[in-house]
Structures are given as C-alpha cells and as structure tokens.
Automatic annotation (TrEMBL):
GO terms for biological process: transcription initiation at RNA polymerase III promoter. Keywords: WD repeat. GO terms for cellular component: transcription factor TFIIIC complex. WD repeats lie at residues 297-319, 385-416. GO terms for molecular function: histone acetyltransferase activity. Residues 84-426 form the Transcription factor IIIC 90kDa subunit N-terminal domain. InterPro entries: GTF3C4, TFIIIC_delta_N, WD40/YVTN_repeat-like_dom_sf, WD40_repeat_dom_sf, WD40_rpt. Coiled coil: none annotated. This is Transcription factor IIIC 90kDa subunit N-terminal domain-containing protein.
Amino acid sequence: MSSRFQSAVLGSSPLYPSAVVWSDENLVAVACGSTVSILNPANPVVRGVITIPSSEPFPLGVIDGGEEDLLHGCLLPFHLSRDARPCVRSISWSPVGLANNAGCLLAVCTTGGRVKLYRFPFCEFSVEWIEVMDVSEMLYNYFKTTSFGESQIISSESSDVAAQDWQIIPVSGRNGKTQEKVSADCNLPLITVQQYASRSAMLMSLTVAWSPILGTSGNGVTIPHNSSTYCSILAIGGKCGRISLWRIHAPEIYSIDSAKSSSKVSLVGLLKAHDSWITAINWALYEFDVSKPHLVLATGSSDGRVKIWRVNVEELLMSSEVIHDSFSLLKEVMMADSATISVLSLIVPTQTPWKLLLAIGKGSGSIEVWILDMSISKFEKVGCCNAHQRIVTGLAWAFDGRCLYSCSQDNSMKSWILVGNSLCEVPNPSHSPGLKSSPDVPYVFDSCFGLAVSPGNLAIAVARKYDVDLLNPMYQGRTHRAAVEFLWIGGQQLDMSSGACPDIDNESFPGLPEKVLIWWECNMLWSLSQYENPSRLLNIWDIVAALLAFKQSAPEYVEHILLKWLTSYFGSQFGNSSTLLSEAFEFLPKLSSRQLHLINIISRHVVLKERKADHMSSKQQELKGLSATNEQVNLWMELLLSSENELLERLVGFSFSAFLSLLSNSSVDSFEVGCGSLDGLRQMEQWVSHNEKNVKDHSKFLAAKVGKVEKR
C-alpha cells in the first residue's frame, strides 16, 4: 500500500469517475452522491459543502400526440420522472482569479444535466458554498431564442413559462379540448416526440472542464488585474455530442467584503464534437510559438472515440456572439474495442513544449498513451495495456509528464512511466518517514473513484468507497461511506535505472532505502524549481509538509536538501552550509522576488518553525542572545531577516515609482480624488528613514521625491 499520511471520512459515496479534484489554491473537492465535500489537505476536515437541490425540468413543450407516443423508442434514454435529489456527475476547479475573492470557482454538473458555478462563502460565514451562476439556464435561454436549431416547430406559441408548470401531456389533436387547456395554462409550444428527445439531449450536460487562463501579457505572464482579457473557457459536454463553450471573465474588482462584483459569463461557441455522448473533456495550453500560445481540447465519447482539437484562442477571446468554427480537428483516435472513454488526461511538458501527452482511460479497464509532436505533426501511440480489471476512474500526469497515475473501480491505483515506446508500471511509493496515518480510518475499501495530484506534485488524493459489509455496523457502518486518502508520491521512481547517488550516504540517513532518498531529493528540488515561475500561484503546502515530516526522523537529510536548493540560487563556490548561509546575504539583491519569497517561506515554516519566526524582530541585537550551539539557526534567521528587508525595499520602491508615475500622468485634483489618503506612503518613508543604513541609494532618492510631493 502507498504511504497514506492522512485521510478524511465522507458521509456519502462517489458514483462517477474523476470524483476528486485539487485546486491551485490547495482545496480538494470530492463529489459524493448529492453533495460536494470541500477540504483543506493541511487540515483534512470538511471545510465546505455544496448540497445539490432538486430542480424542475426545463419547459420544452407539449408532446403533440396520443399516449402511445410516450412509449416511443427515442424517449427511452430520458427520464420523464426526475429524481428528487440528483447526484453529482462531474466537477472541475477553475484557475485562480475568477471568484470575487480572487480564488477559484467550482463547476458542478449533476445527473439532472444541470451545470452551476459555486464560490467560497467568504462574506456569508457559512459552510454551504454559494451559487454564482446557473449555466444550464443560460444555455436553455439561448436554445430557446434559436428555436433549438429547428427550422420548424408545430406551434409558434413559445412565450415564457415557469419551469414548475411544465409537464409532458399527450394531446388528442390539434383542435382538441386537452390541447386548448394546456395552451391556456402553460402557453407552451406543441412538439413531436423526436423534438422532445432532441431538445432534452441538447440540455443534458455530462461533463465539465476549465481551460487554463487565457489573458496574458506579452511575456506569457498572467495579468489578473485586467478582467477584459483575464478569462477561462468552461467546456461542457452533453448527451447530444455537442460541447458548449463559456467564456468566464475575472470580476472587475476583487473584494472579500461584498459579493456584488461577479464574473461575466458569455456563451462563445458550440462544437459538434461527436455523434454520441461526450464522457470526458480535458484542456492543455502549449506554447510551441511563444508569441502566440494555443489551446488544445481533447474529447472522449461513449462510442470509444477520442478527438483532439486545436482552438482558435483569439476568436474565443474577441467573439461577441456564438461561433461554430473556432475549432480544427488535429487527430481522431479510433479504439479497437469501442469501449466507453471514461477519463482523459492531457499535458504539455515544460521541457518539450511542442509535444502533447494524452492518456486515455476506458470502461474496459485499459489505458492508452499517445504523443502528439506539433513540430512535425506526428501522432503515435506509445503505450497500451490492460491496466485494470474494471472501468478506469482516474488518470493524472505528474512530474511534468514523467509519471502517470491511474485508478479503477477495482480498487487499484497504479503508477506508470514511459520507457521508449512502451508504458511500464513502477511501484507506488511506500516509504515516508515521520508521517503518521489516520488510525480512525479503516482500510476496507472496495472501489476507487478518482485521484488528483497536489500542485507541487508531492502528494496525491484518492477517493475510495468503503465495503460497508466489512465495517462495524454499530459504529463505522453508520457513518462511513467513503474516504479521501492523501498519499505521498515524492519518492516516486521516474526511470528504470538503479544507480546510486554519490551525494547520499545511506548510513548518514538511516531508516530509508537509498533509492527512496534519491527520488525524494530529486522530486522536491524539481518541485521547488517549478515555483520560480512568477505566474504560478505560490502554494507549496506539500513541499513544506514533506520537509517537516523528514525533519522529525532525518533532520540531516533536510539540511542536505536545503543546502543543494540554496546552492542552485547562489552558486557552488561555497564549501559547506555555514559558509553558504553566512555569505548568501550579498547575493540576495540578485535573486528574483519569487526566489526571495520561497526562501522566506522555507525559513519560517520549516527551519525556524519551532522558533516562532512570526514574532521575530528585525533588530539584529536580538539575535546575539542565541547560544553558540545554535549557530546554524542564527544564520537562517539572519537570512530570513535579510530576505524580508530586500522584499520590503522592493515593495517600497515599486510603490514610490507607481505614485510618481501616476502623478506625472494626472492633474493634482484628479490624483487626490483617485488616491485619497497618503498615510501608506508616509509609513513607507518612515521605514526608509529607520533603515537608512541598509537601503539602497535609489530607494532614498525615491523617498525624497515623494516627500517633496507631499509637502507641496
């Protein structure tokens, strides 16, 4: 069994694949029956819940015909009597920045075919998440204005009607008594059985997926302050084989005090992707041409077909109406067994941005991996195997496409790596020192319904369903239906070699195999390097938690990893950690602000956690009271204080420059109205004067210019 370090019990069972998703802001959502449970892995108790309400069907019309028409074959796939409590079929987190509080939105698709968007209740102070938008209602209104794409309908009576007044009623004839009563009460159009089936399929959504953020600056860095271009595309696949594309913009103003400023939602595209049900959707962003990033959409259907589409991003961003030709088909994958496509996972490795890796999971339990080389338009299958005995319910790439995780309803989870043109299974990580599991959560599961990788790729969340017959009927059997397991994957093997690392001496770090230590070191250093990209949200919970866990049993190993990490910043000219830490202050101005933030977080939450670094003073004399035995801690504290001062000076300099730039482009009156109080600038001036010996001359010069403006 993999290294489970914590778990959370759920009161309802997941029912559909991909039941767990992990957001960029470190929240885990699990689809459990008629609810969605939302947890924080740092403290895995349910922090939020979305309860799916019962909903009335859309007022499609009145079937024109006799009772025998209700038994027509085309009505068999549809439920004339809806379930009182629909279940959750598909969930997907948006990128960061689309909610009012600058967080993520959660798209939820139910078995009733409804899709709604939810946000965190930041100003309602409740556990229940808040509904932001009913996307299905907007889709119905669009189809209603276009007569559902039909050239003719039986009756032109198509005025508005409340959904609760709708019902399917057989009509004896056009001029019959029953028809007159229905028209008077509901004012609905008369439609045929085929029209009802077609309209129902058009409105029945099955799966949802968000695209990466599209609004960027010239160098590819996201700019969340510009809501006119900062947006994401929500793709919704339905029973009719059509995908609706919704452009969701960031709010004009971020606020945690009011929910008035909401995201702008627009229907921008419709794509007839398949001739059968769309069962899986996945996006990827590739930058083969750096000046013009492209989106790729992978779609899977119930007939076993997979298609890859190139998206015209510019059209979707600029369009003010629904378009149908913003997609071009890159490749169609034909499956030999025609089994239903249950899940897709698409990734573009940063090391090879011209290649797309596509993993396909099927209802038969098999998985396939394809590679699309955009530079030469070559598409080849590099891996295919009967991975599981039952339907594949989860697929997720990790470590920049070097490892693939899969899970199935047969309760198995497996890890795979690509070796040449073959897909090879490798063992799941099983060694994690200093990490404790949850003793109250029994391991008596019978199926797995999805998995999701953490933002730092060091942990994975797996949604599992309990075998209730094996639980104690007096205690756990009453409340336990499913659980979310959090497993460490930082020690994942990523190639088939077994060579030793000369930097690691197993005798110095006892308790773990040498290979495990090697992979943990490589994967943690890789994860830290990924966060040097300023466009990535700084969420390193899994890195900090893993380092703290190793610190309990092997503090020397943590010191070894952090030394190699700092060496990548400052160079390899330092002989040991003491030399590096004592002379690193001179190199801090050369580091990026993101690197300084990383040093700050690791120092506070890993190295100096027991010292309560949050209450440390910036006065150097307070450090002199430390004993000589704490020299290493002393150096880390000095590094922390120096990095904080460097960040503060950059913030002050940026604020002064922005103030002076705004002043030069505005009149005094309009500036005073727009900026209001200058107390913040006065505090920054005081900080510069108090740290006059340490700040740079440029900061002093800017502070003097701002002071002159204030006097004027």
